What does this fold into?
Amino acid sequence: MLNIVIFGPPGSGKGTQSKMIAEKYNLLHLSTGDVLRNEIENNTEFGIIVKSYINSGELVPDDLILKHLYYKATEYEDTKGIIFDGFPRTTNQAEILDKMLEKRSDPIKLVIRIEVDEDEIIRRMIGRGEDSNRGDDKENIIHKRIKVYKEQTYPLIDYYKEQGKLVCVDGMYAADKVFKAICRILETCSDNIGEEEIS
Ligand code: AP5
Ligand code: MG
It folds into this structure.
């Protein structure tokens, strides 16, 4: 299996790039944000609990996320690989993910960090907020999400650097150019991507 983490601040393009990577290399895109928003849309018990965290820009507590994801992950046994988007977001989540994947002998192979200036991510999220239904794309909540990212998620850069898995991509370019750079990295760093999947 080819397991990859797409890492970056809110609005850096994790979802945009993950979708394209998943389609090109036939991998499964697992976005915790999308999973949670889906629960909210369906008004499930879990959705009702997590809504207040998301709409205030806070992370959903680790115990809730991990329990839910554990069940989700069991649905994905047969996939060629997973792109984790928006997960892990804390060191605790990263350690638990490592343990979970260790048991299956399918560790994270690469962590692709998308680097984008803060002014640009704010501009992108405000732009999207004009017509998205996301309750967290409001300017004050965007600032909160960035603060939470710096405090709780940014330290994962060192965690993955120490594991020798971190690669960086300049995310300031147009999405298709960023995607080309990611494809080059994947095809250089991974011996798990077969030629037949590369169009
Ligand atoms: P999540 O859904 O993961 O949101 P996020 O990390 O805040 O990031 P976004 O989804 O807003 O941005 P993105 O990086 O995916 O960029 P995108 O491609 O959309 O999490 C939301 C909330 O859920 C969290 O705050 C938390 O409450 C909770 N949560 C989720 N996971 C959790 C976890 N593991 N633990 C605890 N809580 C968790 O692009 C953004 C915009 O820019 C789009 O409009 C796009 O079209 C545009 N764009 C993309 N690329 C480019 C480009 N290259 N140039 C110009 N525009 C671009
Ligand atoms: Mg996203």
